[in-house]
Amino acid sequence: GQNIDQPTEMTATEGAIVQINCTYQTSGFNGLFWYQQHAGEAPTFLSYNVLDGLEEKGRFSSFLSRSKGYSYLLLKELQMKDSASYLCAVRDRWQAGTALIFGKGTTLSVSS
Amino acid sequence: DTAVSQTPKYLVTQMGNDKSIKCEQNLGHDTMYWYKQDSKKFLKIMFSYNNKELIINETVPNRFSPKSPDKAHLNLHINSLELGDSAVYFCASSQATPPPTGELFFGEGSRLTVL
Question: Residue B107: closest CA among chain A residues belongs to which residue?
Fold first, then answer.
């Protein structure tokens, strides 16, 4: 079966660095995505990894190890507006109409 | 310009009623999806369409019937609503052909409450 695991909740303080981990076991692999979802809003795309290594985009970075079935999202210089749910998702094959399989999300609370 | 738009944003209805949610995307994508997000925030795929053709039909009760009149539109009709159908329904679209990443673009969601 398909399984994506991430911690349910995390807390951090403004200015800090936080790492949100994601492990996956899927029948195939064709990319790992991170989405941010603020309460009451739509998920918005943050990052994409298909090869091993680190992808950096401003304050956010995402890492992938395909052999370990592992990814993390690193958020630096945390701001209050980063309080949101972070969703890890996997695409298990490249085929028209393939959906992303989502984990249950990690709710991050940033305090001052 | 809204990329993926859904209507209505809120739906409150009685058990047993029938309701529809409409979705339109102006991104020129050829794939559209319906996801259900429950009270625990878990996003679960229901259906996907590519160029109006049904690709994914997860184990969803047949009270749910999607319809794609063209590749820019994907509607969801729900018959005989039940309490457990209460959720936020998200429409999304993506570009199926490489080389883009194929990320999903989500609509704002339609919050359905069944009383």
Answer: A42
Query: The tokens of A76 are what?
Result: 């630096």
Alpha carbon distance A31, B9 (integer Å): 31
CA distance A73 to B69: 38
- What pairing do the DSSP bridges indicate for beta strands A32-37 and B31-37? unpaired
User: Is B95 in the A-facing interface, judged by CB distances under 8 Å?
Assistant: no
Contact residues for B115 (Cβ-Cβ < 8 A; gap 6+): B12, B13, B14, B15
Mutate which of B31, B33, B39, B43 to disrupt the A interface (most A C-beta within 10 Å)?
B43
Quick one: three-class SS letters along chain B? CCCEEEECCEEEECCCCCEEEEEEECCCCCEEEEEEECCCCCEEEEEEEECCEEEEECCCCCCEEEEEEECCEEEEEECCCCHHHCEEEEEEEECCCCCCCCCCEECCCEEEEEC
- Taking the C-alpha atoms of residue A66 and residue A45, their distance in angstroms, rounded to an integer, is 20
pLDDT for B72: 96
Q: Is the pLDDT of residue A9 over 90?
A: yes
- Cis-peptide, bond into residue B99, ω within 30° of zero: yes
User: Cβ B41–A31 below 8 Å, yes or no?
Assistant: no
The mean pLDDT value for A6-12 works out to: 97
Phi first, then psi, for residue A80 (nearest 5°) are -55, -35
